[in-house]
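4.2 Preliminary Data

To establish feasibility before requesting continued support, the project team ran the inverse folding procedure on a target of 283 residues. The structure was first converted into the token representation described in Section 3, and no sequence information of any kind was made available to the design step. The complete token record follows.
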């Protein structure tokens, strides 16, 4: 149809709009939605499917999206500008696992933790379940509590830094483990270390322990708290803290980033290379 307007403010529709055929410039999908109006402040009744990029993102500020017959045009607000940009894609690892990706600043980041059991060149990655094997210093992965059925799809695998730095390559072709400087650049892009964590955390308490402070996931990073495996084999902090390796080292330790359930900040610290942490790849 011709031009249509979608107005929102704090999740409420504020103006009369028609049934609109929307073609998302993010997904390339045509979707039919019906907006039912019964009062000035009304809800949104949907027939079919709405897919505007990342389905976990929810507008939290006032704004307007205009359908101009070809694309959405965002008016004034940052959020509507983010919705209208082409900023979501996918990438597959060597095992065929498909990951959603998001463009943040000048880089693309995985929106999910890595799950591959195969290096980029096709070499298998060693699975070390026992504490003795884990502390031996081989390139290895495991699952939290060594439970693949419960944790692999939701939280991904935990890799030690020897796997992260292995010459066979952990990330898909064209992608790499972020350096500590790239983690800092991401934090800067999202407003700084003190507040960026909230913009990166998945919403709700389904995986983050209450109260999942300051979580908005407005970046689309969709961080989940997979916990860690320490160098002696102990598992800890599932649903409480998320840890992600960096490629950078300092002496016998390596850098990593982490997010907490109880605040909206991100820390970038050093850890022993024997630790098992999550991985996000970037390009």
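Position-by-position output of the design step:
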């Amino acid at each position: 149809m011709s031009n249509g307007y979608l107005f929102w403010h704090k999740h409420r529709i504020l103006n009369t709009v028609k049934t609109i055929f929307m073609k998302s410039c993010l997904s390339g999908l045509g979707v039919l939605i019906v907006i039912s109006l019964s009062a000035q402040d009304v809800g949104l009744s949907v027939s079919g499917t709405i897919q505007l990029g990342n389905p976990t993102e929810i507008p939290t500020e006032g704004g307007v999206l205009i359908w101009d017959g070809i694309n959405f045009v965002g008016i004034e607000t940052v959020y509507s500008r983010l919705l209208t940009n082409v900023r979501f894609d996918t990438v597959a690892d060597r095992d065929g696992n498909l990951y959603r990706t998001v463009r943040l600043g000048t880089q693309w980041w995985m929106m999910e933790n890595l799950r591959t059991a195969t290096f980029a060149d096709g070499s298998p990655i060693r699975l070390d379940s026992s504490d003795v094997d884990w502390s031996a210093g081989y390139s290895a992965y495991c699952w939290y509590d060594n439970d693949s059925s419960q944790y692999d799809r939701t939280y991904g695998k935990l890799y030690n830094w020897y796997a992260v730095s292995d010459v066979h390559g952990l990330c898909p072709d064209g992608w790499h483990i972020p350096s500590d400087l790239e983690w800092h650049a991401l934090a800067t892009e999202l407003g700084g270390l003190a507040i960026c964590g909230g913009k990166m955390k998945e919403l709700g308490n389904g995986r983050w322990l209450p109260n999942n402070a300051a979580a908005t996931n407005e970046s689309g990073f969709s961080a989940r708290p997979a916990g860690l495996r320490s160098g002696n084999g102990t598992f800890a902090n599932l649903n409480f803290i998320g840890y992600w390796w960096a490629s950078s080292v300092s002496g016998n330790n390596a850098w990593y980033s982490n997010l907490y359930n109880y605040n909206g900040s991100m820390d970038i610290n050093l850890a022993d290379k024997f630790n098992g942490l999550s991985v996000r790849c970037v390009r």
